[in-house]
Design goal:
This protein is an all-alpha fold. The chain has a domain of 170 residues: Orthogonal Bundle (Hypothetical protein af1432), CATH 1.10.3210.10. The structure holds fe (ii) ion.
Length: 510
């Protein structure tokens, strides 16, 4: 089914471009195995490079780096290797090293990549400088960041409307913000926002643009606009909130913590600033971490002093205040799952992405998609109320353990009912283990009596759970076995059509 119609590498690239990570991984794993079998070095190199991207996407940065290093070793051992491919691997290694806090190593990879594209088309120089721009911003080396950003923009002159230009403008906006040039920041960020909002769906780079706009409005004194853009940033970042986008979430959490402090809501401030501190530490961003910890220290000192308990006069619109608490709470729930069961992270992340892909194929409204995204990511939140020993048993044998496990959708619903989440999300969490034939739990609902969002999550969660362990083909087989018995047959068919459209396009990202 995978290789009959198109080349495995290209099929993987197409799947990757559609966000179908598990299918892409399977194509590239097959290509790798086949290349090893027949001794095809080029296919081995490109499949390893692509598989490194999959690991990176899933937040397994150490594994990604190890896979890219194997690709690099092959590249260096092959004098006739395409120099463009070498640049691609070096840029990936730079990004990986940066994610793991190895900034000197990242610097060396960027320099090697820059040297490698001397005789190549300008688009490769753009690729290198674009990556370098993001990297220097991460480590707060503003002069180098500005140099790389401007070089890339110069090379992209005449490409107005290109999302890469918008991303680079966002970077310049961030540099201006850091230097206190608010007018400059506003011009760059608004230009970037306009371009990215015109793209179909939510462009992934829109998250950092909204995050920077939120800080801009905070610095301009407009708390309402700051909360609005901060919420928009989290909405866009939501599908990758636990893996690749944690640093951007940290930036918004710090902002929300600062706003909560200004309006005298110290409980929310504490939660947001603690999260920002943890996420910055996980991303090795020590300067940001130190700044947030200073805020936390001040907060604790104020808390302990009588004078500090007087609330600030600042205020925000009640609806936005609710929005601030809403995202703080959701992120807190995710943190509690992750701290107890780190392995669930990729599963929750991918279930959310695949559920949203199904939701979009069903043309659900934006509100329903938002409710679906939250429910999909939090569908197993109820397991945090169970004894970890019960949860870790692969197959709970005793009736007590089984009953406990079967109670997790009810615990999940209960937890969510304490927070301002839409009823649709709570219902979806309660019913995500119902079965289409009525044999599921907790209420034994059947067919279309099961809420649509719960039926979508059941399909996505089944696919992801099997797909992460045994790959795409095994996961699709599992879906077809459960079609009509456990899972909604129409949704299984729609899910299959997303993976295997009639006319498979082959050119995409990679
Ligand atoms: Fe579950």
């Amino acid at each position: 089914m995978l290789a009959d119609r198109v080349d495995l590498y290209e099929k993987g690239r197409w799947a990757w471009g559609q966000g179908l990570v598990i299918l892409a991984a399977e194509c590239w794993r097959r290509l790798r195995d086949e290349a090893r079998r027949v001794g095809h070095r080029v296919d081995l190199m490109r499949s390893l490079n692509a598989l490194g991207c999959v690991e990176y996407e899933l937040g397994r940065f150490h594994v990604a780096q190890a896979v890219w290093k194997r690709a690099e070793a092959l590249v260096e051992a092959e004098p006739s290797c395409d120099p463009r491919f070498r640049v691609k691997v070096l840029v990936n290694l730079a990004l990986g090293a940066c994610q793991m806090g190895r900034f000197d190593e990242a610097d060396a990879y960027v320099r090697a990549a820059r040297d490698g594209c001397q005789d190549l088309e300008p688009s490769w120089r753009v690729h290198v400088e674009h990556a370098a721009s993001a990297m220097w911003i991460t480590v707060r080396r503003w002069d180098e960041a500005e140099k790389s950003t401007r070089q890339a923009l110069e090379l992209l002159a005449g490409h107005d409307g290109d999302p890469r230009v918008a991303h680079l403008q966002t970077n310049l906006g961030q540099i201006c913000l850091e230097r206190g040039d608010l007018a400059g920041a506003s011009a760059y960020l608004e230009a970037a926002r306009e371009v990215l909002e015109r793209c179909q769906g939510d462009h992934p780079n829109l998250g950092s643009t909204y995050g920077a706009l939120a800080w801009l409005h905070y610095l301009l004194g407009s708390l309402d606009r700051a909360v609005f853009y901060g919420s928009e940033a989290l909405r866009v970042l939501w599908p990758n909130v636990l893996t690749t986008h944690k640093p951007e979430v940290a930036v918004v959490s710090e902002l929300f913590g600062s706003i909560a402090l200004d309006i005298g809501d110290r409980q929310t401030a504490l939660l947001d600033l603690q999260r920002a501190s943890t996420y910055f530490a996980q991303a090795y961003r020590w300067t940001d971490w130190a700044r947030v910890n200073q805020l936390l220290d001040d907060l604790v000192r104020q808390w302990n002093s009588v004078a500090g308990r007087v609330d600030s006069a600042a205020a925000i619109h009640p609806e936005l205040r609710e929005r601030l608490c809403y995202f703080t709470t959701l992120l807190d729930l995710l943190d509690s799952i992750e701290s107890l069961y780190p392995d669930i992270r990729q599963q929750a992340e991918l279930t959310c992405r695949y559920a949203l892909a199904l939701g979009r194929a069903l043309q659900l409204s934006p509100d329903d998609l938002e409710a679906l995204g939250h429910a999909a990511k939090l569908h197993d939140i109820g397991i945090t109320s169970l004894d970890p020993e019960v949860v870790r048993q692969r197959d709970p044998v005793g009736p007590v353990a089984r009953d406990r496990m079967r109670a997790h959708p009810l615990f999940g619903e209960k937890i969510l009912s304490l927070f301002p989440l839409p009823e649709l999300s709570r219902d979806a969490v309660r019913h995500h283990h119902e079965r289409y034939d009525g044999s599921g739990f907790p209420d034994g609902l059947a067919g279309e009596d099961i809420p649509l969002l719960a039926r979508i999550i059941a399909v996505a969660a089944t696919y992801v759970s099997v797909g992460l362990k045994r790959g795409h083909t095994a996961a699709m087989l599992e879906l077809s076995c459960r079609r009509g018995r456990h899972l909604d047959p129409g949704l299984v068919d729609l899910f299959a059509s997303i993976h295997d459209p009639v006319e498979t396009p082959v050119a995409a990202a990679g």
